[in-house]
Structure formats: C-alpha cells, structure tokens
Amino acid sequence: MELQRMLSQTRRVRNRILSWVNGTKFDPTKLRGVLLGLLVNIAIGEVCCYRLVQQDIRAGELPSFTADLMIVIFAVFEAVVAPLVSWWGFTKRRKLLIGYATAVVVCCFTWFLMPAKFEREESELCNPANSKNDIGFIGTSARTVYRLLIITYSCILFVLARVVFLSHGIAYSDEYAPDRTSMHFGVLLISRIFPLVLGYKVLTSVVESNMVFQILMLAIGSFVSLVQMPLAIPNKAPIVNGVQMEALPITDRGLCTSIGRVLNNPIAMTQMFAMGLVSASLWGYGYYELDIVKYAGAVFSAPILMEFCKLKAIKQAAITSVLMFVFYILITVIPSCDTGIVSGLGKSYYGHLECSLACNCKPQWEEFKPICAVDTMVSYVSPCQAGCRESREINGIQVYTNCTCAAAGRVLERACGDASCRSEQLLHGFMYNILVTFAILVFQVQGVLLLKVVDVRDKSVVMGVASSFIAIMTFVVGHLIFYTIQVNTCRWFEGNKCHLQSEAFPYLVGATCAFLVLTSIITTVTSWHFFKMSNKDKNEDNVTRL
C-alpha cells in the first residue's frame, strides 16, 4: 500500500510538471515577457560586440573602419536571411523559439573563452611618454583573430535569433490572440530600441572594466527566459480565453508564395519603406549623437484601440512622423551655446599652436579633452595641445601645471564656456528622448498595420521582409550616408581618426534625418491612397454582388 501511494504521488507530480511544460492555454502576456527578456539581452549583446571590436581597434589590432564595415556586412546578411528565417519553421514555432533561446544562452557562456583585451598605454601630457602614443593600425595578432571569430558567430546568432523572436513570436500572438497585438508589439519595440539607445552609454560600460560580470548578466537573463519559454507556448493549437482555437491552414504557405503575396501588397510595401526611412533617421542621429554633443524610461501606453482601425493607424503614423520631423528641426536649431575662445580651433579646421609645437603631441584615442586656462579664459582642446607637462588632483578637480601655452596660469579640466553648454546638453538629451518615443509610436503603428493588411498565413513572413527592408535602409544605405557626412565634415583629423567634427556636422545630420522622415511622411500618405483604393474596390465588389 505504501509503495502504491508513493507511486501515485510520483505520477501526480510528473503529470503536474508535464501539464506545465505541455500546457494547452495561451496567455500572450507570458510570451511577451519571455520575448522581452530575450530581445533586451540580444540588443545588449550586439552593443557588447560593438564595444569588443572597438577595444581591438583602440589596441591597433584592427583597422579603424572595421566596426562600420561589420555593421554594413551584418545588415546585408540580415536582409538576405530574414525572409527565409521568418518563414521556415512556422509549423513548429514552439521548438523553433526554444531552440534559438537555447543557442543564445550557449553563445553567452562561450564568451568566457574570449581572450582579454589588450590596452596601449597613453599619455595626455607634454612629456616623453606622449611620444609613444599610437592609435593607428599595427597588425592583427592570433589573439585578436580568435576574439573576432567569437564576436562574428555571436553577431550571426544574434541576428538570426532576433528575427525569429520578433517575426514568429509576434505572429503567433497575433494569430491566436489578436486583441492586444498593438500593446505586445509596442513593448517588444521598446525592448529593442531602448537598449540600442542607452546600451553604449549606460548598459554595457561594464564591458570595459568587468567582462565576467557582463557575461553573467547576459547568460543568466537569457537562461531565465529559456526556462520560461516552454511554459509560454502550447504544443498545439491553444485555448485562449476558454475557447479552443483551430490551427491555421498550411496550404499555399510556400516561401515564394508567401513572399510574393507580401510584395504584391502595396500598403505593406509602402509601410515597410516608411519604417526603413524612420529607422535610418533614428539610427543616424543616435550613432553620431556623441559627436554632436561633443560639438555642442519612457512610460508606454498603447495609443491604438483594441479594435484596430487601419485608416486611423495610417493617419496616426503620419501625424507622429510629422511630430518627428518638427523635433528633428528643433533639436538641430535650438540647443546651442557659446563655447568661448578655443585656441587653434576654426569653424572647419584645427591648427596646431606654436606654443606647444615642441611637445610634438601624438593623439590618444580620445584626444579631445578640453581644458581651461582660467587666468585668460581661453580653452585648449587637450592638455598636450596646451603644452601641459604635469597634473594633479585637488579636491576632486584635475589641475594641470607647467603649461607652455598658459605661462604660469592655472589650467583646469573642462572648457571655459561649458557651464551654459551643460544645460543645453540636458535640453538636447530631453528632446532626443522625445524623438525616440515618437519613433517607437510610429514603428508600433506601422508594424501592427503590416500584420493586419497581409494574408493570415503571411504574418511572420511580412515581419521578416520588413526586417530586410529596415536592415538595408538603416544599416547599409543610411549608415553609409551618415558615415560620408562624418568623413567630409571632420575638423580635426589626426592619427587616422577624427577627433572633432566641424560646426556644419550637427546641422547636416539633423537636416538629413528630417529629410528621411519627410520622405516617410510622403510614403505614408501614399499608403493612405492605396488603402482608399482598396476600400473602393471592395465596395464596388459588394455592390456587384447585390
């Protein structure tokens, strides 16, 4: 009897565990939470890869253009594979999502095998150590090749996993529980965009000081999501709100057939083009934001009704895009400050000063470190360029002494006119956050609209095709446009690196972003025209049937 009781309890425990893992009910908020964690970790992982490449560039073991080249290459890769990845596995989405989540966890743990970074010693002062400064490319070692292999396969996996989670995850949710698709899609967008906006400045800075801690954060976060994934997606057609859903038909769902239906949908195509333009503007401004500033958690609520109206969605996308256009103009024109006198610095050039020529300054990786001669209130672009030979810290303030350009005067860190510029920088940051919020709202409307205007069999495929459009327009076309602007507006180029942009740089970047958004507005209006035409054709068909 005792043995039977123990066996019965064991069976009950086993059945309870199996009911958790092989559940029949589907709660889209659970799936959203799992995808949210994975997408945040993937976005942070991509930024970490960028930082790791930058480490090898600073060490002189990779050419300075490597990071930009990798951005373009992986964007082309995403554009090619996204339609295939978003289509393949639509009949076994549960296994597909679990498999990619497992791969992300394994990838994070393999980073423990990555060799430590190499750092070159640098000096900011006018002394013999400064002559050893070198930020140029000196050659690639076997250690760097090994690091680059790990980074490369990690980037490939991150691209594939991101496309799978976004396309199949949101498509599954919209197929069986479409009522709150707008909310789910919006939250997933936030999980994708905010880590990219804040990732480099805030979320991945520990990569430079404690790589083990960063790896553990990514690995543990991804593992938690992996454990939850089998509980979030049923094995078969789920029960939603007490109603047993039917599996979607698998007829006419071939790759070419699905892509053909998407490409022949004018509303979907124009919206994807508009999304690419908005994405390119946001990426270009965000990628070069630090250069713009060097010169000079939003609360989300679903703005779309549960009963999704396509016409209202198009209008909302157009209105929000207009607001983005206005804010690009404002953020370019309004934040400005008087930087005072900066010795040797012209509007479009920097000339070395005679008083520090004897130093024969060689630049550091971050050579632009303004200092202020307080007696004359003249700023210099760096301690070495001011001829400073010594420095010390007094009450938390860095003080430079024995400066040939400042005679016997006191020289402090920061530019002389930075007090007003700091408040303008806060204004810039505030306006930039508003821009990001507007972009999320635009992407949300356009993304959900894509899901609603295509055939029910093509929901994941349309997300994959949209990923291809965005990758090409943002990280290839857009990135190359902004890179060209950056190269042609460099004011201080030394050591194969641009240390400071010209005064025209922020205006050209802002104007380009505004133009891209304006083109997106025109494209959205075109979508509205196609939608009107489609409704007219349907009405005529109904009249004919009557």
From TrEMBL:
Keywords: Cell membrane, Membrane, Transmembrane, Transmembrane helix. Its main location: membrane. InterPro entries: Kazal_dom, OATP. Residues 349-404 form the Kazal-like domain. GO terms for cellular component: plasma membrane. It is found in: Cell membrane. It comes from the Eukaryota. GO terms for biological process: transmembrane transport. Pfam families: OATP. PANTHER family: ORGANIC ANION TRANSPORTER (PTHR11388), SOLUTE CARRIER ORGANIC ANION TRANSPORTER FAMILY MEMBER 4A1 (PTHR11388:SF100). The chain crosses the membrane at residues 69-90, 97-114, 150-171, 183-200, 212-233, 267-286, 430-454, 461-485, 505-531. This is Kazal-like domain-containing protein. It is a multi-pass membrane protein.
